[in-house]
Amino acid sequence: MNVAVIGSGTMGNGIAHVFAQHGFSVALIDINQPALDRALATITKNLDRQVAKAALSEDDKAATLGRVKTYTSIEAGVVGAGLVVEAATENVDLKLQIFRDLDQYAPAEAILASNTSSISITKIAAVTKRPQQVIGMHFMNPVPVMKLVEVIRGYATSDAVTAKVMDLSRQLGKTPTEVNDYPGFVANRILMPMINEAIISLFEGVAGVEEIDTVMKLGMAHPMGPLQLADFIGLDVCLAILRVLHDGFGNPKYAPCPLLVNMVMAGRLGAKSGEGFYQYTAGSKELVVAERFRK
């Protein structure tokens, strides 16, 4: 099967990597050629890491890279695709337009999947003429490492399409988990309120950044504390998902903490901006609390 991936950012290049590594021909599509070039460089670096760990041979690396072709046009990139995975920015209007284009250009039998972490699959499917072939494939970051794929059935998604996507996920060495289409699905419906509560605890002065994360890491066996994880995900992404939950359920328990809102407005987005709850310096793995939150 030929696979097309829309978006060459962190998630898109990771999804392209795992499909190509498992023998699929991949069309990686982005309107920005420099972004595609960076994606290929990232895939190469991650494959090199696998080779260094003896998890992959040099021949396997070369074969994987040979299966990835880049395109700056959806129309050209989806020709012959049996599966399209959209991994664009978590913006509902952008995703709806992409799916309108996919419905127009992708083969009639193609499955159209979204890697959205919170936006309704039913809403996305409704802008197409093939809602039974639209599904969610929510991969976790970093895609080559994380085993879970949250497979989200929209209101009209067919049993056959769901079974096919579950099987494809297993072919990637992943563990697919089927869930229904409600705001936040399962992963973010549970995770984001926890992250938000950690931010509220900081906001109200219950404890500091390092202390909150230490309690969750050592007391709850989380490999990463919620504030560090929020930085890793991106505070803007966390805010967007909380707003989807708040709007979708109308429940004040999902209302984002004012501190989170202010940090996003100030451009403190976490690791990708160099500062969130922690400070990030290129080339350093040391975890340093951001100056604003130091005692």
From TrEMBL:
Q: What is this protein called?
A: 3-hydroxybutyryl-CoA dehydrogenase
- In this chain the 3-hydroxyacyl-CoA dehydrogenase C-terminal domain maps to 184-280
Protein family per UniProt = Belongs to the 3-hydroxyacyl-CoA dehydrogenase family.
Alphabetical list of NCBIfam families matching this protein: PRK05808.1
Every 3-hydroxyacyl-CoA dehydrogenase NAD binding domain range: 2-181
What InterPro entries is this protein classified in?
Answer: 3-OHacyl-CoA_DH (IPR022694), 3-OHacyl-CoA_DH_CS (IPR006180), 3-OHacyl-CoA_DH_NAD-bd (IPR006176), 3HC_DH_C (IPR006108), 6-PGluconate_DH-like_C_sf (IPR008927), 6PGD_dom2 (IPR013328), NAD(P)-bd_dom_sf (IPR036291)
* PROSITE patterns reported for this sequence: 3HCDH
User: Which keywords does this chain's UniProt record carry?
Assistant: Oxidoreductase
Q: Does the keyword Oxidoreductase apply?
A: yes
Organism expressing this protein natively? Hymenobacter antarcticus
Q: What is the lineage of its organism?
A: Bacteria, Pseudomonadati, Bacteroidota, Cytophagia, Cytophagales
